[in-house]
Amino acid sequence: HLIVYRTADTEEQLEPYDCQPFADTLDPTKGSPLMVTQKHEELLTLPDGVAFSLDAGVMVRLEMHYINATPEPLDVSATSTFTTMPEEDFQYEADFLFLGNPDIDIAPNSAFTLGPTFLPLPPDLAGSNVFGITGHTHQFGTNVTVSLAETEAGPDTSLYDVPGWQWNEPATVFLDPPTVVPDGGGFRFTCEDQNTSPNQVSFGEPANEEMCFFWAYY
Q1: Which of 61, 96, 163, 167 could bond 141 through an S-S bridge, CB–CB 3.0 to 4.6 Å?
Q2: Higher-confidence position of 144 and 40
Q3: What is the pLDDT of residue 24?
Q4: Over residues 51-69, mean pLDDT
Q5: How far apart are CA 83 and CA 96, in angstroms?
């Protein structure tokens, strides 16, 4: 993974250091993700007139998650390039949602489906325009689907259902036009897994544990 954060840090740390993953995703006073990717190279294209805004002097953190499966040390690196837009073209602020369900418990050598799970959007985000979605699991994940639901029990509309979905390079689906989350509405999502190991698998950050998440750009 590569995660790009806008942070409230005040001092540069130019040398890589060990950190807790996703440390600032739940505390907006410390910062917020701008983008998460699992691909070798990925371009996030925002709709016309839409941009992330960065205050003067704001700091950016690159967080990398890697596993070395070889017996020798590896040198790894990652870069992030920002493209600016003329201020007169700016109309709408972009932001990032990170949603998921940690209730994962998969028996050895077994299939598992988590969901569908309904997560309502906070009232202050009602009417938001969602323009991109990426599903996320670890190695046992075989599919992630996401729908827009008007209510918890109401009908839904598919937003993210990628044929041949791959956990290690999950597709980002761009919605054109963006979809509007109605007042009281939210997302209904499902994760499918196939535990090919002889061990019980539960939710966790390590590679041999599992996740059921998706992130949305709005």
Answers
A1: 167
A2: 144
A3: 66
A4: 91
A5: 18
